[in-house]
Amino acid sequence: MKNILIPIDFSPCSKGAARMGVFLARKARAKIHLLHIANIPVGWDKKPLQIRQQNPAIESRLKAAEKKIRKFSTHKMFKGLTLTTAINGDAAFEQILAYAKFHHIQLIVMGAHGAGESAGLFIGSTAQRVMRMASCPVLSVKKNYTPTAIRKIIFASDFDETITRPVNMVKNLAASLKASIDLVYINTPNHFKNSEEVLRQMNAEVHVQKQVQFNCIIYNDHDKEAGVMNYAKKSKAGMIAMVTNLRKRKAGYLLGVTETVLFHTDVPVLSFVQK
User: Fold this and answer.
1) Residue 217 has pLDDT above 50, yes or no
2) The sheet that has 3-7: what strands, in order across it?
3) What rounded mean pLDDT belongs to the chain?
4) Same domain flag for 27 and 81
5) Are the C-beta atoms of residues 122 and 263 closer than 8 Å to each other?
6) 167 and 97, same domain (yes or no)
7) Residue 158's domain is classified under what CATH number?
8) Residue 164, number of CB atoms within 10 A of its CB
9) What is the pLDDT of residue 124?
């Protein structure tokens, strides 16, 4: 993992995401990209000076944004890290996705809610869209999060399809954190699988894995969301990883499950998209 993107709007959630991004960057020796989406037209800073001078209100907002991100980037938590900053215009989720693609970002770390969005919302609209559409994993962090040592990551999946790529990404992250991984299948009354079948599917994902300790867990609960949250609490997980399959609109680990888990837990949630 070489590049970590942290969208920052200076809300408590995004500052918690910044702390988490810094924590991971130090472990993985990654570069941090701080991206602020300002209330200015897209591409405003690239327009001719003559046009910009005719719009002092927009220029004022740009200058204020530049000052704010410059000040934030000098915070002591970034000391010793490779850091770059950027400001883009409106359409936050589109700008985040475009930046991530152009700069070959391997991980987006962002707040579950942005400035002006109530923590009582199910999940912030920008975070939701980025989780749905990003080509790289997205780690969502709740308000005022302060990272501590992460010793266990749980990876919850229905294992109906091959998830080798997400498993490898989590393995690399776990290796940098010196954490173990629990592959977790939630058996529910309405979505029940034979244990041997589930373990066979799990072992197919981890039989060639090295460096990291894997545990295969089948956990029984009344529904998937509750099962993931209850197992995370029971196992004292420091991170929950889930795969979102946008082609599936039936039982399984859909984005709705990921959103529900994120809403009800304070544990950072790492989401992958399978399209």
Assistant:
1) yes
2) 83-88, 31-37, 3-7, 107-111, 138-141, 269-274, 239-245, 152-156, 180-187, 214-220
3) 87
4) yes
5) yes
6) no
7) 3.40.50.620
8) 13
9) 67
